[in-house]
Amino acid sequence: MTRGLFRLPDSTYACEVWYRANGQILKSRTLLSAAEAQRFQQRVAESLRRLAPMAGIDQSGRPTFLGGAYTLSLGLYGWGIPYLLGMEGSAAIGTYLLISAGGILIAHSATERMEISESTANLSFYGSMMGLAHGVMVAIIVGNNEKMGKGYVSSAMIFSTLEGILGYQTGKRLKLSGGGVEMLGTMSGAGLLYGYGISSLMDQTSARSISTSMLIGSVVGTAAGMLMVKDDSYTNGDVGVFRGAAMLGAYVPISILLAAHVDNSKTFVSTAMIGGLIGGTIGNYLVKGKDFSTAEGTYIMFGAFGGMLIGGGIPFIAGANGEVAAVFSAVGSLVGFVAMYQRYAPEAGQRATGSSLSFQVHPEGLAAMSMRPTLSLQNQWTTSIVSLSYRF
């Protein structure tokens, strides 16, 4: 018996099996979606590993995993360890270079025969980056001292390491697709934002209370994400559409409040939280059974962004004030999102778009920015809010 998996021009897959029966060679052909094909490949790989443990090791995510390890070695451990040891001057510089190089060499050697899928590598990196934020929050909660710089750094390093390992182990156990991993990261970051929003509604002003609320929110968001990805039905493009709908759900009502000259901050926060929840629910419905490609999800996000710019630009040309422009930009973003969704939804999962362009929004970046007023300048951390990437 011979089996083959082929990608068809419309981006679906065909599984063909040739076998002999009654002296004849017969062929069975089954059509699979992209998600079904990926799960089929995972099952085949698992069977191969059982029969020959050292054969067919999936290392597709090793470059991503090593990239994350290199980033943490250069950007955290390299300077963090000398700082904790109180080193200064040339000794600190030399130690930084040696630790950074050691981290790179150790990661490369340790993963030479390790199974690392693309989704496992991404989930490990998500865990490491979220662990940085969680570590700082735990240090604030435990120490409640905005001057404890070494406490922040040591806690961030510990939690980044632990959550990176946890992400790797979770990825191996759940065997999520790339979309499942991205949804899990999105929900965890969104939990940080909702935790901050709740602390604002409760008039919490201390760094300890805000950090506690955000940490709880992140845990709840991660738990919600785990429930959402249980059936592993999301593609990366699906998550992009979901995220765009959630953002529109928050942005549109806020623009109306601006036009109505509402000046109550709690009204803005509660409206954004409720709107984001409604928008996310709608977005989750819109991607059911669609299997948007990464490029299609990016195009839909670009449609919303372009509509926002056009909607905001026209009122200014006409001499209108900023409140009118805010409403028009919200309407424009909504129109752009809907138009691009209708353009790509009928063909989602059925054809290749020929692009590896990806536009992402990072809720944890927004959360970090929102916490800056509560921390002293030397104890703030930096992370991106949006990213645009193209995979060659």
Measured by DSSP, the beta-strand proportion falls in: 5-15%
The assigned structural class equals mainly alpha
Mean pLDDT: 83
Number of strands: 5
Distance between the termini: 37 Å
SSE run:
EEEHHHHHHHHHHHEHE
Task: Tell me roughly what share of residues is in helical segments.
Answer: 55-70%
Radius of gyration: 24 Å
Biggest sheet strand line-up: 1-2-3
Q: Main beta sheet: strand number and arrangement? A: 3 strands, antiparallel
Count of helical stretches: 12
- Overall 3D geometry? flat
The unreliable regions are: 370-382
Report a brief summary of the structure.
With 392 residues, this protein is mostly helical. The protein is built from 12 helices and 5 strands.
Describe, in plain words, how this protein is organized in 3D.
This protein has 392 residues and is mainly alpha-helical. Among the domains are: 1-58, no CATH class; 236-348, no CATH class. Helices cover 67% and strands 9% of the residues. The chain has helices at 34-51, 62-84, 89-110, 118-143, 149-174, 178-201, 207-228, 236-259, 265-286, 294-317, 322-344, 363-371, and strands spanning 2-7, 13-21, 24-32, 357-361, 386-390. The strands form 2 sheets. Strands 1-2-3 form a 3-stranded antiparallel beta sheet. Strands 4-5 form a two-stranded antiparallel sheet. Helix 4 packs antiparallel against helix 7 (207-228), helix 6 runs parallel beside helix 12 (363-371) and helix 8 (236-259) packs antiparallel against helix 9 (265-286). It starts with a strand and ends with a strand. Residues 370-382 have low confidence and may be disordered.
